[in-house]
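Supplementary Methods S3. Input chains for the assembly prediction are listed below.
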Amino acid sequence: MKLNDAVLGAVFLALSIAVLVTIQSFPKIPGQSIGPGAFPGLIAILLAGCSIALIWRGWRERASQPLVAIGAWLGSPRHIQNFLIAVGGLVFYVLASDQIGFLICGVIILLALFLTLRVRPLLAMPLAIVLPVVIHLIFYKLLRVPLPWGVLPVLW
Amino acid sequence: MVAAYAQAFALVFDPYVLTVIFASALFGLFVGCIPGLTATMATALLVPITFFMPPVPAIAAIVTATAMAIFSGDIPGALLRIPGTPASAAYTDEAYAMTKKGQAEVALGAGLVFSAIGGLFGTAVMITSAPALAEIALKFSDYEYFWMVVLGLAGAVFIGNASILKASMSLLLGLLVACIGLDNPAGYPRFDMGVTELKGGVSLIPMMVGMFAVSEILRFVVHMEPPLKLATEKIGNVFKGMWGLLLKYPWPLVRGSALGTVIGIQPGSGADMAAWMSYAMAKKFSKEPEKFGTGHVEGIVEAGAANNSALAGAWIPALVFGIPGDSITAIAIGVLYLKGLNPGPTLFINNPQNIYAIFLVFILANLIMLPLGWLTIKAAKNVLRLPRNILMPTILLFCIVGSFAINNTVFGVLLTLVFGVLAFVLEENGFPVAPAILGVVLGQMMEENFIKSMIKSDGDVTAFVTRPIAGFLAVSTFIILFWPVGAWLWRRYFSRRNMPVTE
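Predicted structure tokens for the full assembly:
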């Protein structure tokens, strides 16, 4: 997805303004001109300057560059689906892993990704089960990372 | 010093450390060989594992894996015309042309042997110069450190980026991310949005896993590419004729190694830039420049040495000043901090054995590259047949576990997700990611030295330039900053003057 520079510049400008607004509420250190807001404030002012330059550049080129150019992959439903499943898999893990556990989450994420990336189902099924188990064993047993069990009983 | 070296030997030649080196060598060779998996990604994926190791094996794993990955990126370049890592891109067409001519073993052999020599060259420079530089760095005060950081960041933005404006914005974004949390001179919690996990700042490792591994996976799943096709299955003895090449091209080898080391030291530009510049230099100085691009080995000798020497060069500022030379050392610096080995000149005084151990690992890594690289080339056609649509989802699951493992909270996975998507969107729109990562790593150091200097001088900015070294560094920074403007004015002036002639 290619956005016009003006759009991107506006996003960055909004960010720098948000930073500048936030630092207004930071406490001042008595007797000193420099408080916790000084450094981020300086950075935000520089970023705002760059953003305005980028907006200006994007605006000048708006004739040749549309505000949102649909990249090659955004024209292909299959690739959009791939992207959404990859990102969705991570979102799903963040939301659900504590309740249903690493193993089940891992199997679901892998299976979904394998299928959307067109791995043969006969191969995808066993791999999607074996790989999370292997990764779990390595991290849980060897490195002692407390990956959540969730709904499953503690198996090893 | 001898005692420290003896200690370093004991640290490195320990069965556990040697096993780690061997395993990470195989890992690096594998990752480098697969197109779409870069040396930086290898580092990002290793970091969650090194988190559980003592300092020396942790650093050894990163050093070895990256050196191997940079070499093995040459393999798919020669066989598939797809560089395995960006550092091989400069001479991929050349290597592929050699394969087409039936000289795959020469292209790969040159890549292997001269990578190792370049790596050893860079290591030698590091061993001799880093301790001496550390002596100088000891005399640095806050002002000099401030300028060192600014100089490093300026280099990252102004050298080798297509759009300086976008590189600057990427850097500033990184600096803002570094501001999050309590770790600032005032100890005031900034921009934490009320999230407890952000009070200590954005956790570096999940962020890097996101920026360098998840973003790469996202790029893979939306990429429309034809399946890989091997150009040849027949690869002869890769070491045959290498001695002849060494005698034929001593100067390109030395030039490539030296230029590579310098590019590596220069913050912000790493192995890929070194390879591009060396390849161009090889062509310029060659007696037979017309052969370049047709399957001529000379450029591979020079650029292959350059990208590996750059890797070692990048560690010099990282160890001496704590200023990373490229994105790999940016990650490594994060690891050093986690291990309590804060990089800087005092590390050379208090823990010289650790520094010497890193030197030894570099030598060892470049030596075992020869046999292991040979094996990888032998196995290449099988490695390259591994289906990436199985590999990439597995790596994604690995990223999840890795980012979880640092603080054992799911918040790490969330950070990985956010920074993965952010890096993906930024790169899609022409923003380089390396300046951002340097900004995040250096932001805290920059702020601390800036604030301390300002407080010491009571708000007087001239104090930043009146000390001799600080003044020199300031001038260097401004030269880098105004170089593009100066070059532009120069071109304008000359094109105006020459206009009547050209018309």
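The radius of gyration of chain A is 24 Å. Chain A has two domains: 2-69, 73-142.
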